[in-house]
Design a protein that fits this description.
six-stranded antiparallel beta sheet, three-stranded antiparallel beta sheet, alpha+beta, 51% helix, 13 strands
Length: 812
């Protein structure tokens, strides 16, 4: 391996002046030093060639297309060195085990769909956000009063609708973490998402980078920005990436970087334009012709009218850039009015002698970025100079970053160690075991028969006489029955003349065990267990055991996951810084403004304020399927127990972060339970009030009943008294009348009594005469009867006597 990792003497002096660095000779010397340090890709001993060889091998294993010649050499029997002469026709197609594990890792990382969360971290933004958060907290604290004010004012337009505010301060904290952003943060985040979408970063570049991290342990993205063409993110093959020596897996301390690629001569002419003349193209043509196999220089004419004359050959170019520190001078000068000014003098400064006013020079060391395109193998360089539109941190303008965003896993001595690289040996042994299985199956014999001819001598063979062995075999195969004598003529026992030979595949169980052994080693190395890939999970495994197995797998691939997130973060940071340096009157600014839309004009206006802020990028990932499933189970349990409402479940599902979703679930659940407790308390209070009201009503009814009874008694007594009084009065009147009647009667009775007595005397006399007459008549009748002159008298003929007492008044 090429081990010259230190900068060689071919690199130009980094302390040269800025004017010297801007010369093409300086850039050409730098490019040649990079080429010399890395060597040619075709040279397997160079750093570039050795790394490319490892990457190529790992990619072939990751795709399941590795070279099978080594397996043929191990299994051949005639010519091991040549790889030919095997007597067995085996299928040498590699078993796609490693491709499966690579896809599992890549899809697991990409399934969570990362997205940038951009926040301003400068003091101005922090104070604005803190003021906004305090305002929201204050409104949450007086939410009830705001609702009353809204009802009193008839829905007057307010700063924030009180119905949309969180219910509690704890819920407000979650609200503040997700929704409180300044206009500049919103503008930066919207523009970053649009830039990633325009570049198809998530579905294209990022997927390829994650696949590279799993297969070869390294990924590179190049950023380019132009006010007219926009911000672009370009995938770079790590096999073609060159950089200064570093042991940092995130390449934070590299001073130069570049990448090699092949382009057609016509494309080169378009890129270089007038910077390359005819003589330069002749040299390039010679190099291209020398590299091309089976082509002759005499057959080419670069001045031909055929526009595709250059496209038949490819030329290698190297886009490179390096960071160099230049000294920028400023001069502090006092004018004639006594005022002091501060003036930029550029990278060169000459002190003026004999100046009337005092001049004080100041200098600031600044990192500048130089870059260009070098045609490898030649002395041609074009597009060299200071790189324009370099994004910088507005709070640290003295530092700059390269356009490349590389990351690696297990990086040591300029070489990454990938997951696939760790499993190559096990994959080879697993493939050999698979071929051995094929070999054992191919060499396996079919089931056969042992026919004892001597044992058939005493068997009656029928009219046909003797039978041949093949005929015996046919009879046995077709009928499955064969008759023979168990004793020979001497009386001794003999074995059956036809016996089966059972042939099994030799060493099949040992080979299958060996295959599973190497498969288990691959699983142990990658950390992808059965629970993680869901290939054959144990049915009796507990949920906690399965979650632990999945967590163990996540820990095993954490270096790949972490590197992919850092790569995503670097790309987003570069995009945000590029957005901050877009000229306000450029076409790109109009493109972003139009893309956001007229409805967000208040956000568009904040684009002009982006350079004032210092943004921090945090990559947020959506929750995994297991986390989402676990969260959904908790939501369903809470819904079934009526601990949350449907609106709460919808709000929880909308969150992408599992921690925030769980916190919101807890808050909404506690809120719902508190509300239910309040409702239960209100119900109990209402029931108590109703019971109290019922008791009061019963007491009042009883009191009213008692009052009515008392009133009735009083009325009854009053009525009784009135009746008694009236009765007494009536009695008195009756007595009075009686007395009066008695008095009157007493006076009247006396006169009447005299008259009555007189009349009675008269009547007595009259009655007495009648009785005498009647007695005389009766006596005459009795006398006549006695004489027999008449019959007996009846009772009716008897005249009753007059009762004088009946005619008398009472008491007389």
């Amino acid at each position: 391996m090429y081990s010259n990792n230190k900068p060689s003497s071919g690199f130009p002096n980094p302390l040269s002046s800025s004017d010297e660095k801007l010369k093409k000779s300086y850039g050409l010397r730098y490019a040649k030093a990079i080429e010399s340090q890395w060597g040619k890709m075709e040279d397997k001993n160079s750093l570039h060639g050795s790394r490319n060889g490892v990457f190529k091998r790992n990619r072939s294993y990751a795709n399941g297309t590795q070279d099978t010649s080594i397996y043929k050499q191990l299994l051949t029997s005639l010519n091991p060195n040549g790889g030919e002469g095997s007597l067995l026709n085996l299928d040498y197609t590699p078993v796609p085990i490693l491709p499966k594990f690579v896809r599992i890792v890549v899809n697991k990382i990409l399934s969570r769909n990362p997205y940038p969360n951009i926040e301003a971290v400068d003091p101005l933004s922090s104070s604005q956000k803190n003021a906004e958060k305090q305002r929201v907290r204050t409104q949450v604290a007086v939410k009830d009063e705001l609702k009353e004010l809204k009802e009193m004012t008839g829905g007057l337009q307010m700063d924030m609708d009180p119905d949309q505010l969180p219910e509690t301060l704890e819920e407000a904290e979650i609200f503040l973490e997700t929704n409180i952003k300044t206009d500049a943060e919103i503008a930066a985040q919207v523009a970053t998402n649009m830039t990633l979408s325009w570049n198809n970063f998530n579905d294209g570049t990022y997927r390829r980078c994650v696949n590279d991290l799993a297969a070869i342990g390294m990924a590179v993205v190049k950023r380019s920005n132009d006010p007219n063409y926009g911000i672009k993110t370009e995938y770079v093959d790590p096999a073609n990436f060159v950089h200064s020596y570093t042991d940092d897996p995130f390449f934070e301390n590299i001073v130069y970087a570049g990448h090699v690629k092949e382009i057609t001569l016509s494309e080169l002419k378009r890129l270089a334009g007038p910077q390359l003349d005819e003589e330069d193209f002749k040299k390039i043509m010679k190099v291209a012709t020398k590299r091309a196999q089976g082509h002759n220089m005499s057959q080419l004419d670069y001045r031909s009218n055929n526009r595709d004359a250059y496209s038949e050959h490819m030329v290698k170019i190297m886009e490179f850039e390096f960071i160099s520190v230049d000294c920028m001078y400023f001069e502090e000068k006092e004018n004639r009015h006594g005022n002091v000014g501060f003036y930029n003098e550029g990278f060169t400064y000459r002190e003026r002698a004999g100046s009337v006013f005092q001049r004080t020079p100041h200098k600031m060391e600044m990192e500048m970025l130089y870059g260009g395109i070098y045609i490898m193998g030649t002395d041609c360089l074009f597009n060299y100079g200071l790189v324009a539109n370099v994004p910088k941190n507005v709070h640290d303008l003295s530092r700059c970053r390269l356009s490349y965003s590389p990351v690696a896993t297990n990086f040591q001595e300029n070489m990454p160690k990938s997951m696939v690289d760790s499993c190559v040996g096990f994959a080879d042994m697993l493939q050999i075991t698979h071929l051995k299985l094929q070999q054992a199956i191919a060499k396996a014999k079919p089931d056969g028969l042992i026919i004892d001819i001597e044992g058939l001598e005493n068997v009656q063979l029928g009219k046909g006489g003797e039978l041949q062995p093949l005929e015996l075999h046919d009879i046995y195969e077709q009928t499955g029955v064969f008759y023979y004598r168990s004793k020979n003529p001497e009386g001794g026992f003999q074995n059956p003349p036809v016996r089966e030979i059972g042939n099994s595949i030799r060493n099949i169980n040992e080979l299958i065990g060996l295959y599973n052994h190497y498969l288990r080693l691959i699983r142990d190395t990658t950390g992808i267990n059965e629970a993680m890939d869901a290939s054959s999970p144990k049915g009796d495994a507990l949920v906690g055991v399965r979650n632990q197995a999945i967590a163990a797998g996540n820990n095993a691939i954490y270096d790949i996951t972490n590197s992919s997130m850092i790569l995503y973060k670097k790309v987003c940071q570069d995009i945000v810084k590029c957005l901050q340096i877009i000229p306000p009157d450029s076409v790109l600014m109009d493109v972003y403004s139009n893309a956001i839309g007229e409805s967000n004009m208040e956000v568009i206006s904040s684009f002009s304020d982006l350079p004032m802020y210092n943004f921090g990028v945090q990559v947020v990932k959506e929750m995994e399927d297991e986390e989402r499933q676990f969260l959904e189970q908790n939501i369903q349990v809470a819904l079934s127990q009526k601990e949350i409402d449907l609106e709460d479940a919808i709000a929880i599902r909308d969150l992408k972060d599992i921690n925030q979703a769980e916190r919101l679930l807890i808050v909404r659940r506690q809120k719902r339970m508190k509300k239910q407790q309040e409702i239960a308390q209100q119900n109990s209070q209402m029931q108590a009030q109703q019971a109290q009201q019922a008791a009061q009503a019963a007491s009042q009814a009883k009191q009213q009943e008692m009052q009515m009874e008392a009133q009735l008694k009083a009325q009854e007594m009053q009525l009784k008294n009135q009746l008694e009084a009236q009765l007494e009065e009536v009695k008195h009147n009756f007595r009075k009348e009686i007395e009066m009647i008695k008095a009157q009667a007493t006076l009247g009775f006396r006169t009447e009594d005299q008259e009555f007595k007189e009349k009675l005397e008269v009547l007595k006399e009259d009655r007495k005469d009648e009785r005498v007459k009647k007695q005389s008549a009766e006596q005459s009748k009795l006398i006549s009867q006695r004489k027999g002159e008449r019959g007996e008298l009846g009772e009716q003929q008897a005249t009753p006597g007059l009762n004088v007492e009946e005619l008398l008044p009472d008491g007389q």
